[in-house]
Design a protein that fits this description.
two-stranded antiparallel ribbon; 4-stranded antiparallel β-sheet; single chain; alpha+beta; 8 strands; 6 helices; Catalase HpII,  Chain A, domain 1; 341 residues
Length: 341
């Protein structure tokens, strides 16, 4: 019989702390979120002090001063002092330090945006122009040609990237995964995997690589809800020593289709009806189910989609599964296939 996995501590009420849905917190917040963890403790402190700060001002006591004769004289609004600085923090991870996000010691009461523009001036001396993947660009003024005056070669990825940037200077909404949120972090390799790959993130035990992770829904538009039943995207950009690497993932280990040729049809089927733009971020219409009934390979994915996996409690509770199969190559040129889960 399968046993439920535990996280080392009582977490009754943790859902109300970690949920992305606003609403009453029932039951009361837990005293801890599993094993001892600084960020988890700061999250609980933030939640408790947030509520205490809100309770300290159940209504606006200076509201009457906005009417009648009193309104002619500017008045100072009422204030409450938080019991902890975490009450006014944007996240519970502001104490995490890295070369990108800072030293982990926020300047309480300070606002860098009020400073002079010198803080954002950049000296490009000694810096290289690179592609999106971090590859140095020697020349972006002359395309690669076949011979001295021959045709332009499609192998010129610098030309293709430059034109692609030009074509997308007015960025439309993403066709899929338009609704999303992202966070900075790091990937830490637990072991030295040089035996199977020469990729920099896996080159040593304990090696940390900065990452940027974007979580998203699939079908909804930018203004749709985060709480809908949908597959969740889990895309990770690794800022490696050798350049940038993107790992595309979902929170479900299987997919709707087997052949990429069907992908445009799948997306067109799940999108809202064109005449009234409904339903939003949902597959609850005949168009999608007509497609599903004609694609038997979709059945496995639908079982996952109709489970709790499609309504995750929070980003903290999500898993990531690489969509594609990759070939890892080591320094000897030996290769193996793998999937990232």
């Amino acid at each position: 019989m399968a046993k439920r996995k535990t996280n080392g501590g009582a977490v009754d009420g943790a859902g109300s702390v970690l949920s992305t849905i606003a609403g009453p917190a029932e039951p009361a917040h837990p005293t801890r979120l599993g094993p001892p963890n600084q960020i988890a403790e700061q999250l609980l402190t933030k939640v408790v002090t947030d509520q205490a700060l809100a309770a300290g001002m159940p209504f606006n006591p200076t509201k009457p001063l906005e009417y009648g004769e009193a309104a002619y004289t500017p008045h100072e609004g009422d204030t409450e002092s938080p019991a902890s600085d975490w009450a006014t923090a944007s996240t519970s991870t502001e104490s995490v330090a890295s070369p990108k996000v800072g030293d982990g010691r926020p300047d309480i009461g300070g606002n860098p945006l009020d400073g002079p523009l010198d803080r954002v001036r950049v000296d490009d001396s000694g810096r290289e122009l690179t592609t999106n993947q971090g590859v140095p660009v020697a020349d972006n003024q002359h395309s690669l040609k076949i011979g001295l005056r021959g045709p332009t070669a499609m192998e010129d990825f610098i030309l293709r990237e430059k034109i692609t940037h030009f074509d997308h200077e007015r960025i439309p909404e993403r066709v899929v995964h338009a609704r999303g949120s992202a966070a900075h972090g790091y990937f830490e390799s637990y072991n030295d995997l040089c035996a199977i790959t020469r990729a920099a993130p896996f080159s040593a035990a304990g090696k940390r690589t900065p990452v940027f992770v974007r979580f998203s829904t699939v079908a909804g538009e930018r203004g749709s809800a985060d709480t809908v039943r949908d597959v969740r995207g889990f895309a990770t950009k690794f800022y490696t020593d050798e350049g940038n690497w993107d790992l595309v993932a979902n929170n479900i280990p299987v997919f709707f289709i087997q052949d990429a040729m069907k992908f445009p049809d799948l997306v067109h089927a799940v999108k809202p009806e064109p005449h009234h733009a409904m339903p939003q971020a949902s597959s609850a219409h005949d168009t999608f189910w007509d497609f599903a009934s004609l694609s038997p390979e979709i059945f496995h994915m639908l079982m996952w989609h109709t489970s709790d996996r499609a309504i995750p409690r929070s980003y903290r509770m999500m898993q990531g599964f690489g969509v594609h199969t990759f070939r890892l190559v080591n320094a000897k040129g030996e290769s193996v296939f793998c999937k990232f889960h």
